[in-house]
Structure formats: C-alpha cells, structure tokens
TrEMBL record:
GO terms for biological process: exonucleolytic trimming to generate mature 3'-end of 5.8S rRNA from tricistronic rRNA transcript (SSU-rRNA, 5.8S rRNA, LSU-rRNA); mRNA processing; nonfunctional rRNA decay; nuclear mRNA surveillance of mRNA 3'-end processing; nuclear polyadenylation-dependent CUT catabolic process; nuclear polyadenylation-dependent rRNA catabolic process; regulatory ncRNA 3'-end processing; TRAMP-dependent tRNA surveillance pathway. The lineage of its organism: Eukaryota, Fungi, Dikarya, Ascomycota, Saccharomycotina. This is Ribosomal RNA-processing protein 44. Residues 82-201 form the PIN domain. GO terms for molecular function: 3'-5'-RNA exonuclease activity; RNA endonuclease activity; tRNA binding. Belongs to the RNR ribonuclease family. InterPro entries: Dis3_CSD2, NA-bd_OB-fold, PIN-like_dom_sf, PIN_dom, RNase_II/R, RNase_II/R_CS, RNR_Ribonuclease, Rrp44_CSD1. Pfam families: OB_Dis3, PIN_4, RNB, Rrp44_CSD1, Rrp44_S1. Keywords: Cytoplasm, Endonuclease, Exonuclease, Exosome, Hydrolase, Nuclease, Nucleus, RNA-binding, rRNA processing. Its main location: cytoplasm. Residues 511-844 form the RNB domain.
Length: 979
C-alpha cells in the first residue's frame, strides 16, 4: 500500500467514511475504495445513562443490545465508583488476572482493542470474547470504530499503532464526558489501564485517568491479595550482575534468511534426559538440527516455533550420551543475583566430548552415521508459553520473605523446562503447594524467564491438586460448560425422546428406520459414552449385511452455535484414571447421543453387503433410528460368543461379525498394516474409597479386534465418500512414512546386540521384518521391539484434503490410501466434521460454509491435532501418578528391560506395570568406575557389592519398584532401583 486517502459524505442519515487504497504490485497500481459507515446510535451500554436507551435503534434481527455496565460499579479503596477501559497490552499480558480476579468488573473493551487482540493471539481473543458474554463479569465491547463520536481517521505519516492508540484514548475521553452529561444520579470515573508508557503519558496529558495495571491493583480494596498476580514488567527488572544471551535477529533479517535458505524455521524439542540439548526438524535435512548448550538454545522453550542458523560443519556433533538435569547444574543459583552466563562443568563436558568425536580424522562408520548438523536459535516466531504448574524451591526463599516482595524460583513439573523466577511476598505460605505461574518475559539479560504467581492449586500430593495440575500442564480445558453452551441443549433435557411421528419433520422423514435390526454395542467395562453399535445378518444370497451405527451427534450440535464452538475448541474428550473431561456436555455424551441399550436413538449408519471373504459388494450411508438390544463389555461379549448354548439371533450376528473381522484383519496385515505395541495398563480404583488399588496390563480379546476392524472399515468407507464429495476440504487423517533416519539408532542397536535388523522399504517390509525378530530365549523381546518401533514412527495427524496431494493421504500404519475418523463423534471433533460432510455428500442436508472453507478447515485441524496429542499425554500422566500411588503400599521386585543406555545411567521399561524409569549411575554403583561403550550400547560399573556389572540395551534386569516423591518436582512416581 503506497497511499491511503479518507473522504466523508452523508447518506441516509449515516456518515460514510470512504477509504481509498492504492496498492502497487508488479509495477502496476490498483485503486481500492472501501466505504466505512459511521452511526450516531451506538449505545454506551451503561445502566446509568439516561440518553442511550432513547436513541438506540434495534439491530437487523429487531433486537436491542443489552445494557450491561452496572449502575453501582465498584469503588476504589480511596475513591469513587469507576468503569475500566482496557488497552491491548493489558489483555495480552494479564488475561489470567483480568479473567479470574475479583476487582475487574464493569469493563469496557474498545472494538479497536478487540481487533488488535484477535490479530495477535486467537486463544486470548477467544477468552476475551467469552468474558464479554459472561453476565457475572460485566464486560462489554464498545464499537468505537463505527461511532461518529469516537471514530478517528489515520493522519498523514501516522503509524497504524499510533492511530489505534489515539482511537482508544478518544473512546476514553468521549465515554467520560458522555457519562458526566447523561448520568447525574451517580458520578463514575473512567480509568484507562495501559502499561505502554508513551500511550499512558499522552492519555494523562489529555486529561484521562490512565494507570498501569500495578497502580490500579494497588488502589483496590483487596490489593494485598492481588499484588503477586500482576505480570512482571521486564523494563523494571534490575540485576546485580547482568548477563547476555545473544540478541535475536531483526524480523526483516529472519524473514529474508528463511526466504533465501540461510535460516530455517521449526519447532524446538528439548530432550527429556538433557535440558541442555534440543532438536529442530526441518525439511532440508534428513536428521534434526541439534541445539547443544544454553547459548545455542538461546531462551527457547520446548515447543517454541523458532528460527535457527546452521553452524559450520566442523561443529556438527553427535547427540549427547549424558543425562543432564537442571536441578544438578543450577543447584547453587540464587533468585536475587545473576552471574555471567558461563558454561557449567556438565555443559562443558557435553560440548567437549562431542567435539572430540566430531574432530576424529577418520571416524568409524557408526560414529559418522550418528553425527548430526548443529545450529543456534536466532529468533522466536511464536512462543508456546501457557500456564505452568510447579512449586517454589525452598532453598530460594529467604528468611525475610513475607514482609516485602522478594524473588524466588518455581521448579516446574516438566523437567524439560527451566525454572521460573517470580516476585512475591507469599513465598513462605506457598511452600509445599502446587502453584500456577505465567511467564511474562525472558530478557536477554536474565539467566531465567521472569513470571508471576497466578494461583494455588492446593497441597502437593493431594489428589485434587495433582489432577488439576496435570490438566493445566497438558493444556486441557476442564472448566464447566458456560451457560451459552448449555442453552444450546434440548429444552426437554433427559426427557428427550425420538419423536413418535416420523413424518413430523422433513429431516426425520429422511431417516431410515432400523429399529428392527438386532443392534448391540461392545465397549470397555462401565462405558457411559457409547459412540458405536453393530449388527450383522445372513442375506438370502449367501452374503452378509453388516451395519456400523454411530451416535448422531450433529443432530444436536449444529454448526455455528456456541455448543459447536466449544466442541471445536476442546477437540476431544480426555480420559484420566479417575475421571473423564468431556468434549460435549454430559447430557449429550452419556444420554441423548449415547447409544444406550433398550432405548431409541438417532444414528448415522454405514451398511455394507460383504461376501464370505469380507469383500465389499456395496455400501450405503444413511441417517437412521436404531434401538440397541444390549450393551456388552468386551469380556461379556466374548463369553457370549464362546458359549455354544447361546443360539439366539443376536449372538449369531456377533459370531458373524467375529468371523468377518478376522478376515478383514488378515487382509490389512497382508497389505502391510503394522501390528505395533504400547505398554497399556489399567489402574483399578477401590469402589468405596476411590483410592487406586491395583495395576494390571490391559487384556486384548478377540472382541476388541472385532470392534476395531469394523470401525476401521467404516472410517475408510466414509473417507472415500467424503473425499469424492469435497476434494478440497474433506476432513481426513494421515500417517506419514517414517524417515529412515528415525530407525537408524534402533537398527544399530538391533545389529550390535541381536544381529537383527528391520526393513523400511514399505510398511509391509517393516511388518514382515518385525515378525522375524524373535528371540527364542525371551518371548517378550518381540513385543519390546514393537514398543520401541512405535516410538520411531511419525505421529498421525488430521488434515484437510486440499492440503496434500492424494499420494500423501496414505496412512502408513494401517496400509490404506485414505482414512478419517467417523466413529466417535461424542469424544472427537474430527468425527463431528466428518458426519456433517457425509450428511451433505448423501444429500441429507447442506454443509455449513465453514466446512467448505480450506483456510478454516486447516485451522480446525491444527487445533484438534494439538488437543489430541495433549489428551494422550494427560492420560499417560494420570496413569503414571496413580501407579505411583498404588506402589506406596505395594513395593515389589519385577523384571525389566534396558531400553536406553547413557554414560551416566540407564532407562528401564517394566512390562508388568507399563512404567519406564531412569536409574542414574550414582544409584547403580561407583561412578568413578563406570565405562561407557557407546558403540555397543553398554555401561560397565562396579555395583554396591563390589562386583563389576555390564548392562546393555535389550538386557533383562531385575528391579525394585518403590513409590518416591521426586526431590525436584515433588511428583509422586514409581522409582526403579537395580537389584
């Protein structure tokens, strides 16, 4: 844009601002004219105002906007009543304080601020919009950009930011005058909250009561409770001895470097065993780029989107063979003072050891294959910062803490992350508590990130605090559903029933009546949200009719509603040991949508005709009405099938399903589908006390496979139908081929330790080679190998079909060319979208425009991929916590397997409990006697009895399992000790 001109004219009683843009592209100029209508009837929305109710006109729907700002707003400790106006920086940096704290009521959000927040952070924008819909907080959006009284035109040579700041100040001034003139019954002051020094100074000059967030909090009656919640202002930080991380490159240099290929962009992954080592995957390199040491990581957090610069080839290194934890390296740091950013002894050894390897004149082939390119972080594109959970380090709390604000360290539960420095006077009373903190900044002159206290979750080790902590740590939305969402549910509530008059509604008339089919569900024990049910019967021509019936969630969850937006945001239900965090309100998930037995339910059905070899003869898709005959657990279904005395039609149908499922599975395996493994356990809770009682490995029955095969078949069939109908926006799921480099380490370990190898030419070659890797002396070895192979795979991901070419749709693990998720819409939002697309594909109802828009679909996919991954991690963390609780009273000795060997420790997997633990060298024996053989993946040491022992990858080891409280993170876990 090289020019912008604004003109005004009057039309139909409205002021029209005409914006003329001149855009230059490829040497040509294009003139763009946009009209911006200004109104004289936009209300202030204060109940105190005598003028606005009389001048306000109804909207397009004939409705009047609700007046929300209270006629008795809050008073300051030393002053009168007031309304607040928020600046953009307050919303972006203190949304948690504004959202949760008593004191932020009757808040005016200028439209300018709302749009700036949306452009800079969609998650915070979503939270701000939710506040504006809350009746309790009394937040309102004032459309200053469309009001004649508050709109300001951009002046010559004025930046967009300066113009927006002026627009917000104009809104404050107008609002104060408007209330003074039109609300004589009560004097109300307008307070402008702004942490931008320049904007605040200008506001004060213009007669506006402008304050920083800290100044406003100090003026509140409950200031003592709130001071510690104010985000840290990095400009006010003063350190005794300044340090210096490398400064980030300018935006122009970053963008230019990425464009010309001298810089690379990617996501940082910090090693879970070495906090000084990170990796960034970029398409230009077969292997990840290594980031070794504090300076090269340069303040990057795990999960940050960063820009890195490649280091010279002479500095390329092997990944570290050491375990390095921050608690050991930073043990003597104090929160008040900073020393120079000097390399620790552990970090120096890390770099020196790898340097010796890389500078060998003739490294062995094995060493050469392990060397990876190295890089350094030169810029941050997007921070992954969120709420973090941890506890205050007791050693960082001084004796004088409590009388005045002082610095202390918060040790986070995630060992991949650095400790955070916060400033609080509550440190003594917060010791032993799980607390939530937010990060405000990480200046280049600070060794640690700076943050602030948000709230306390409760005592360390209390079940409530630990459960909420793991939900926050994995960014799981667990707050109750809002009133706006609940208002979308059927008014009949639990009394809702399938209408008896099937001709009473045009959509119900389109449904197929399948209530005569012998349908049943097969799920885990005590399942309440039943997504799927099945039926099968023999046809007169000797083929079989098989039906998969899926809960018709989209009958109740309509696109564009608050209920749909909430489901899209949550993305998935989250299953913990002791509770379930629902994607949709319980009324839908466990009642109206759940395919409970003996009641009629709406369903979306996929019905095939299959021949005796399980080949598809034809497939039909239909919205339907079903009545499930029974809800089986896997065990009960298996017992019924195996009981030859049961010859009823329902049981015969289940036997048909089992027979066909075996043929379907064999077809998949023949095509190259992978039969991988993961250590899955179940924690049993005491029915009376709800305490964890015992742990067992989940049993896999034939009925598990029965359900799985037909769900896979339904997902594949729906994927084909939806892609045919919507080739650019079909909701699909892909599993990319793993790069050969992912298996290099595993194959090298197999070759050295077992004389075996896995093949990667195709999924079929990999599956066959995994089958061949058997150890006659150890029946569990093949399962162990499959667990380790699973970790070498790429993660499956949701995507919109227009994002990739058809060959890239392939699901490597399932060995199919196209796939989606359709069969669990109660607990996955992907399935909700797939249902809507399938309904449109069969002509049942039109598809909402949001699911036809490629950009919007990509946004949905990005969110549900993140939510799905977080839900998996949260579930595993819940199991880990409860296994630790079980072991408090059930210490035992078990057989384990060494799956990784470092120079100063080993990692052991215990199959019985599905747990994995690090055993450090100091607990193994004499650290000075240790010899690490990197090429043979073995560690030799003198144990505590004086005997010399060698442990290598894949070795069986006997371990004692005890429940301990981690000294650093205060997390209860099952700790392993070598026998």
């Amino acid at each position: 844009m090289v020019a912008q001109v604004e003109r005004k004219r009057l039309t139909a009683g409205l002021t029209v601002t005409q914006k003329v843009f001149v855009r230059s592209r490829n040497g040509g100029a294009t003139k763009i004219v946009r009209e911006h209508y200004l109104r004289d009837d936009i209300p202030c929305l204060s109940k105190l105002c005598n003028l606005c109710p009389s001048i306000m006109k109804p909207d397009a729907k004939g409705e009047f906007q609700k007046f929300t700002l209270s006629d008795t707003p809050l008073k300051l400790a030393n002053g009168g009543h007031h309304y607040l106006v928020l600046d953009t920086n307050i919303v972006l940096h203190a949304i948690d304080l504004v959202e949760n704290v008593h004191g932020f009521f009757d808040v005016l959000v200028p439209q300018t601020v709302l749009e700036e927040v949306r452009n800079r952070s969609v998650p915070i924008y979503t939270r701000l919009r939710a506040l504006c819909k809350s009746d309790d907080k009394r937040f309102v959006v004032f459309h200053n950009e469309f009001s004649e009284d508050t709109y300001v035109a951009r002046e010559a040579n004025e930046s967009i930011n300066d113009r927006n700041d002026r627009a917000i100040r104009r809104t404050c001034s107008w609002f104060q005058k408007h209330l003074n003139d039109n609300s004589p019954q009560l004097s109300v002051n307008i307070i402008f909250l702004c942490n931008d020094n320049d904007n605040r100074a200008k506001a004060i000059t213009e007669g506006i009561d402008a304050r920083t967030l800290a100044e406003y909090v100090e003026a509140l009656p409950n200031a003592d409770e709130l001071r510690d919640l104010v985000p840290t202002d990095s400009s006010e930080l003063q350190r005794v001895n300044e340090i210096a991380y490398p400064e980030y490159y300018s935006t122009a240099r970053l963008m230019g470097g990425i464009k010309n290929g001298t810089l690379y962009q990617g996501i940082v992954n910090i090693s879970s065993y070495n906090f000084l080592e990170g990796a960034v995957n970029v398409p230009s390199f077969k292997k990840p780029l290594l980031l070794l040491g504090r300076e090269r990581l340069n303040r990057a957090f795990n999960g940050d989107s960063v820009v890195v610069e490649l280091l010279p080839k002479s500095q390329w290194r092997e990944p570290s063979s050491q375990i390095i934890e921050e608690s050991a390296v930073e043990a003597n740091d104090t929160p008040e003072d900073e020393e120079e950013l000097k390399i620790s002894d552990q970090e120096r050894r890390l770099l020196a050891q790898d340097a010796m390897v890389s500078h060998k004149t003739q490294p062995t082939d094995e060493v050469a294959s392990r060397i990876q390119p190295t890089a350094k972080v030169v810029g941050i594109i997007r921070r992954s910062w969120r709420f973090y959970v941890g506890q205050i380090a007791p050693t960082s709390v001084s004796e004088n803490s409590g009388s005045a604000p002082s610095n202390c360290f918060v040790i986070l539960m995630d060992k991949c992350l650095p400790k955070i420095r916060i400033r609080t006077r509550k440190a003594p009373e917060l010791l032993g508590k799980r607390i939530v903190v937010a990060i405000d900044s990480w200046p280049s002159t600070s060794k640690f990130p700076e943050g602030h206290f948000v709230r306390s979750l409760g005592d360390v080790e209390s079940a409530e605090a630990e459960t909420e902590a793991l939900l926050l740590e994995h960014d799981v939305e667990y707050r109750p559903f809002s009133k706006n969402v609940l208002d979308c549910l059927p008014s009949e509530g639990h009394d809702w029933k399938v209408p008896t008059d099937l001709d009473g509604d045009e959509f119900i008339k389109k449904r197929k009546d399948l209530r005569a089919k012998l349908v049943c569900s097969i799920d885990p024990p005590n399942c309440q949200d039943i997504d799927d049910a099945l039926h099968a019967q023999l046809l007169p021509n000797g083929n079989y009719e098989v039906g998969v019936h899926i809960a018709d969630v989209t009958h109740f969850v309509k696109a564009g509603t608050a209920l749909d937006a909430e489901g899209a945001s949550r993305g998935t239900s989250v299953y913990l040991v002791d509770k379930r965090i629902d994607m949709l309100p319980m009324l839908l998930g466990t009642d109206l949508c759940s395919l409970n037995p003996y009641v009629e339910r709406f369903a979306f059905s996929v019905i095939w005709e299959l021949d005796s070899d399980a080949n598809i003869v034809k497939v039909d898709f239909m919205k339907s009405i079903i009545k499930s005959r029974e809800a089986f657990s896997y065990e009960k279904a298996q017992l019924r099938i195996d009981d030859e005395s049961n010859q009823d039609d329902l049981t015969k149908g289940m036997r048909i399903l089992l027979q066909l499922s075996r043929k379907l599975k064999q077809k998949r395996l023949d095509a190259g589908a992978l039969n991988l493994a993961s250590p899955e356990v179940k924690v049993h809770m005491d029915s009376e006390t709800s305490d964890p009682a015992e742990v067992e490995i989940k049993k896999q029955l034939a009925t598990n496979s029965l359900v799985e095969e037909f769900m896979l078949l339904a997902n594949i069939s729906v994927a084909r139908k939806n892609f045919d109908a919507f080739p650019q926006t079909a909701m699909l799921r892909r599993h990319a081929n793993p790069p050969a480099t992912n298996f290099e380490n595993l194959n090298d370990m197999l070759r050295v330790r077992k004389g075996m190898a896995v093949s990667l030419e195709s999924s079929k070659a990999l599956a066959d080679s995994l089958d061949r890797c058997e150890d006659p002396a150890d029946p569990y070895f093949n399962t162990l190998l499959r667990i380790m192979a699973t970790r070498c795979m790429m993660a499956a991901e949701y995507f919109s079909s227009g994002s990739y070419g058809y060959p890239e749709f392939r699901h490597y693990g399932l060995a199919v060319d196209i796939y989606t998720h359709f069969t669990s819409p109660i607990r996955r939002y992907c399935d909700v979208v797939a249902h809507r697309q399938l309904a449109a594909a069969i002509g049942y109802e039109p598809l909402d425009l949001s699911h036809r828009d490629k950009g919007k679909m990509e946004t949905v996919c990005k969110n549900i991929n993140r939510r799905h991954r977080n839900a998996q991690f949260a579930g595993r963390a819940s199991i880990e916590y409860y296994v630790g609780q079980v072991m408090k009273n059930n210490e035992s000795t078990q057989l384990g397997y060494a799956i990784r060997v470092f120079s100063n420790g080993i990692v052991v997997l215990v199959p019985k409990f599905g747990i994995e633990g690090l055993i450090k060298l100091e607990s193994l024996g004499d650290i000075n006697s240790a010899r690490f053989d990197e090429e043979n993946y073995s560690l030799t040491f003198t144990d505590h009895t004086g005997a010399e022992r060698t442990i290598a990858v894949f070795d069986q080891v006997e371990v004692d399992i005890k429940s301990v409280l981690d000294e650093v993170t205060s997390k209860r876990k099952a700790e392993l000790f070598l026998k």
